[in-house]
């Protein structure tokens, strides 16, 4: 554990903790995570040397996903574990030893507050933000497994409609690697929604180098898993967030029924 003085160097006593949870005693087999839920920056880091318009765009967080994740968690009575600090401080879906963990450049924006970062300063971000979040996910999975509760891990993300000048056609995408159960089922159900353009591992695919939550908490723990990515312009406001939460609650409810019928959960 870190000491009070170490903590004070990065996160003050009256600053919010990184981990945010909803429906902790939820009965659903789905366990939602949200690595890029928030865009807070510890006061000690100021604005990371960036203007406000950079700190509110997609490089800082997954725009819109917080509202979807919370509404979905409540609708399904499913436990949600989310991380409140900006991925510009530390990206909770990157292995902590890769360069993009604390990015110096994101899309085309240089992050001055991350340049020439001392090893100790980087370690502090890991200790106070990255580790507590992943430790909590670990604990929750441990508990669920020891209680013999079915657990299907679904990390929730959103993606920018235009990246580096290129428009993206998908409304929603799946995000997976080694699980062979949930991703095809999820794709089948999403494709049955005839108004949707569905990305199969688009716009992103999972790898051990570019991702952390799925490889570590899903694959290494042997949990069925698939990430979901929703395009940000569709969930920018509360009505879009509600609609998507309702649609995903219905789809995931159907998937749960199917998995139960097959005896997979
Ligand atoms: Zn994300």
Task: Report on the architecture of this protein.
- With 265 residues, this protein is α/β, with parallel strands linked by helices.
- Helix content is 35%, strand content 16%.
- It contains 7 helices and 12 strands.
- The strands form 3 sheets. Strands 1, 2, 3, 6, 9, 10, 11 and 12 form an 8-stranded mixed β-sheet that branches. Strands 4-5 form a two-stranded antiparallel sheet. The chain has a two-stranded antiparallel ribbon with strand order 7-8.
- Helix 5 links the parallel strand 9 (172-175) and strand 10 (198-199).
- Helix 3 (65-76) packs across helix 7 and helix 5 packs across helix 7.
- The radius of gyration is 18 Å and the shape is globular.
- The two termini are 36 Å apart.
- 40% of the residues are buried.
- The model has no long low-confidence stretch (mean pLDDT 95).
- Bound molecules: zinc ion.
- Zinc ion (ZN) binds next to loops.
- Zinc ion is lined by residues 35-36, 62, 157.
Topology:
Layout: H1 4-10, E1 19-22, E2 30-34, H2 52-55, H3 65-76, E3 79-83, E4 105-106, E5 109-110, H4 119-146, E6 152-159, E7 162-163, E8 166-167, E9 172-175, H5 182-191, E10 198-199, H6 213-219, E11 224-225, E12 227-231, H7 238-261
Parallel strand pairs: 2-3, 2-6, 6-11, 6-12, 9-10
Antiparallel strand pairs: 1-3, 4-5, 7-8, 9-12
Bound molecules: zinc ion (ZN).
């Amino acid at each position: 554990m870190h000491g009070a003085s170490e903590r004070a160097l990065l996160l003050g006593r009256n600053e919010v903790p990184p981990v945010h949870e909803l429906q902790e005693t939820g009965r659903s087999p789905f366990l939602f995570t949200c690595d890029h839920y928030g865009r807070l920056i510890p006061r000690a880091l100021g604005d990371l040397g960036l203007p406000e318009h950079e700190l509110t765009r997609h490089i800082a967080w997954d725009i819109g996903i917080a509202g979807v994740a919370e509404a979905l968690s409540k609708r399904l009575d499913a436990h949600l574990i989310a991380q409140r600090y900006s991925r510009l401080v530390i990206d909770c879906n990157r292995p902590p030893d890769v360069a993009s963990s604390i990015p110096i450049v994101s899309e085309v924006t240089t992050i001055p507050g991350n340049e020439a970062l001392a090893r100790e300063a980087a370690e502090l971000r890991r200790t106070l933000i990255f580790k507590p979040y992943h430790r909590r996910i670990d604990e929750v999975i441990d508990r669920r497994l020891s209680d013999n509760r079915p657990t299907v891990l679904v990390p929730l993300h959103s993606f920018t409609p235009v990246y580096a000048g290129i428009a993206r056609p998908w409304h929603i995408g799946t995000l997976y690697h080694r699980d062979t159960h949930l991703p095809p089922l999820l794709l089948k159900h999403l494709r049955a929604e005839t108004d949707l353009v569905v990305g199969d591992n688009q716009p992103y695919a999972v790898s051990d180098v570019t991702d952390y939550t799925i490889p570590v908490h899903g694959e290494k723990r042997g949990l069925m898993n698939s990430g979901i990515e929703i395009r940000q312009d569709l969930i920018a406001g509360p009505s879009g967030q509600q609609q998507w939460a309702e649609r995903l609650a219905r789809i995931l409810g159907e998937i749960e029924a199917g998995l139960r019928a097959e005896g997979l959960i």
